[in-house]
From TrEMBL:
It catalyses: heme b + 2 H(+) = protoporphyrin IX + Fe(2+); Fe-coproporphyrin III + 2 H(+) = coproporphyrin III + Fe(2+). Its main location: cytoplasm. Keywords: Cytoplasm, Heme biosynthesis, Iron, Lyase, Metal-binding, Porphyrin biosynthesis. GO terms for molecular function: ferrochelatase activity; metal ion binding. It comes from Maritimibacter fusiformis. Its EC number is 4.98.1.1. SUPFAM superfamilies: Chelatase. This is Ferrochelatase. It is found in: Cytoplasm. Pathway: Porphyrin-containing compound metabolism; protoheme biosynthesis; protoheme from protoporphyrin-IX: step 1/1.
Length: 346
């Protein structure tokens, strides 16, 4: 408790001490028009954690070529999946639902001493705005939780960087923690397995192949020490072991390649065509690196990757949605939060 006995009458009011839990997602454009898309892509693709080329080399290409073309192409894709009722992207709608459910679970356990909110790395609501809001509401301790099951520089690290930059702006900084990757937690693997078993209760009903498609990163990031590739491989293994399916039935692939460099392989779009040509008629795709459905799953997997499979002779393509606001997912996230609040709630 703060000691207020010696406060002068004009002292700024001090709110009661709270604990903030700030979950963080990637971010999404405010709209799908050219300028909203350009603003979002500019912020995203200017991030050195995402594209690490020197600015003198990269910025002219980004500003003069990529940002004149890609906002149209990506904007058209966002338009196809847009949540018109709420006038926002699915990533935004789902992140809001996850936050509400996580808040309900944590406040049922710890009361409103715990404040739960979300922020984005790019676009709105920005991480600095949410950190400032938490501090203003009296959060003297903040747990920052990037919603990426597997760690990578272009996601987890840049989200954390932004959190630390936000703290730099605070006069009275809260104590701060960041939550680690959670790809190998039994509760997360269990939530993934249950999402598969809802469609395929037994291996006898299973598709010929379950493709675990992760967002890719340049192959070079792996050799430079990013553990993302290994954590993706382990996620697939743990999921397969929990399902008890044959090794040949569950594969790891990487999607969303951007630019001319080699990215992690095999590329999903090529691998599903290869599977079809090899006689695999029924496949299912799951995207364990995405905590919520977004353009990369709803458009890229459901459209481009599905077409690639069917054009190569595949017949039955099922996309298994992300964990989104599934109860089992929220329980797994709550478990990560509670573990990382240790010592703060006693
Ligand atoms: C250009 C390099 C990119 C890297 C490296 C990258 C890594 C990466 N991204 C995610 C998760 C998401 N990415 C999303 C969209 C998206 N990603 C890139 C580029 C890179 N991502 C772009 C240009 C875009 C925008 C869409 C497009 O123009 O194609 C999204 C979806 C956002 C949404 O609003 O729906 C997510 C989520 C991970 C997990 C990752 C590395 C591990
Ligand atoms: Fe991405
Ligand atoms: Fe994509």
């Amino acid at each position: 408790m703060r000691d207020t006995t010696h406060m002068p009458a004009d002292h700024p009011t001090l709110p009661g001490e709270k604990i903030g839990v700030l979950i963080a997602n990637l971010g999404t454009p405010d709209n799908h028009d050219y300028w909203s898309m350009r603003r979002y892509l500019n912020e995203f693709l200017s991030d050195k954690r995402v594209i690490d080329y020197p600015a003198w080399k990269w910025q002219p290409i980004l500003q003069a070529i990529i940002l004149t073309i890609r906002p149209f192409k990506s904007g058209a894709n966002y338009r196809k999946i847009w949540n018109n009722e709420a006038d926002e992207s699915p990533l935004m709608t789902i992140t809001k639902a996850q936050t509400e459910k996580l808040r309900a679970v944590l406040q049922a356990r710890f009361g409103d001493r715990v404040m739960v909110d979300f922020a984005m790395r790019y676009g709105n609501p920005s991480t600095p705005s949410k950190v400032a809001e938490m501090v203003k509401s009296g959060c003297s301790r903040v747990l920052f939780f990037p919603l990426y099951p597997q760690y990578s520089g272009p996601t987890t690290a840049t989200a954390n960087d932004q959190f630390f930059r936000a703290l730099m702006q605070e006069t009275w900084q809260p104590a701060a923690r960041t939550a680690p990757a959670y790809f190998d937690r039994p509760s997360y693997i269990e939530a993934l397995a249950q999402s598969v078993e809802r469609t395929y209760p037994t291996e006898a009903e299973a598709p010929d192949v379950l493709v675990c498609s992760y967002h890719g990163v340049p192959e070079r990031y792996l050799t430079e020490g990013d553990p993302y590739h290994c954590q993706c491989q382990k996620t697939t293994r743990l999921l397969r072991e929990r399902l008890g399916w044959d090794k040949a039935r569950v594969v790891t692939t990487f999607q969303s390649k951007f630019g001319p460099e080699e990215w992690l392989k095999p590329y999903t779009v090529e691998e599903v065509a290869r599977l079809a040509r090899a006689g695999k008629k029924r496949i299912a795709v799951i995207a364990p690196a995405f905590s919520s459905d977004c353009i990369e799953t709803l458009e890229e997997i459901e459209e481009e990757i599905q077409h690639s499979f069917k054009d190569a002779g595949g017949q039955d393509f099922t996309y298994l949605p992300c964990l989104n606001d599934d109860d089992a997912h929220i329980e797994a996230l709550a478990e990560v939060v509670v573990e990382n609040l240790a010592g703060w709630l006693d």
